[in-house]
Amino acid sequence: AFAAIITEVVPGGPAAQAGLQPREVVVSVDGTRLEADRSLGDLIGGRKAGDQVRLSVASRGGEPREVIVTLAQNPDKPDAAWLGVRYGTIASRDDGPRPRMRNPRPEYPRGM
């Protein structure tokens, strides 16, 4: 299974306004689960500023919760939607619960 672990939430950005926190894990966007070929950036990148997305988010030891985020205009790409986070991709192996970082250097991916 794949997920995106939030490493930074931009103050005042859409994610911050929705209450997302660093170290929370995003597992799906509008019911579509993240996969190896379907990252958080891919799922947000096709949206427009003003769109609302429903994120399924989990924190360590907590139950997953649904968070509605209204995307803003990307300050670096005016034609792209912006969630306002930095993140890394994690993958849990089928033989154990230990996640491994797939993208250890977080960055602002496309549309983020």
Task: Please tell me about this protein's structure.
The chain is mainly beta and 112 residues long. It is built from 2 helices and 9 strands, in the order βαββαββββββ. It has helices at 14-17, 40-45, and strands at residues 2-9, 25-29, 32-33, 52-58, 65-70, 72-73, 81-82, 85-92, 99-101. Strands 1, 2, 3, 4, 5, 8 and 9 form a 7-stranded antiparallel sheet that branches. Strands 6-7 form a two-stranded antiparallel sheet. The protein starts with a strand and ends in an 11-residue tail after the last strand.
Q: Count helical runs.
A: 2
Question: Helix-strand pattern, N to C?
Answer: EHEEHEEEEEE
By DSSP, the count of extended strands is 9
Largest sheet, if any? 7 strands, antiparallel
Distance between the termini: 21 Å
Spans of at least 5 consecutive residues with low confidence: 95-111
Indicate the structural class.
mainly beta
Q: What amount of the residues lies in strands?
A: 35-45%
Shape assignment: globular
Q: Please state the average pLDDT score.
A: 85
Radius of gyration: 13 Å
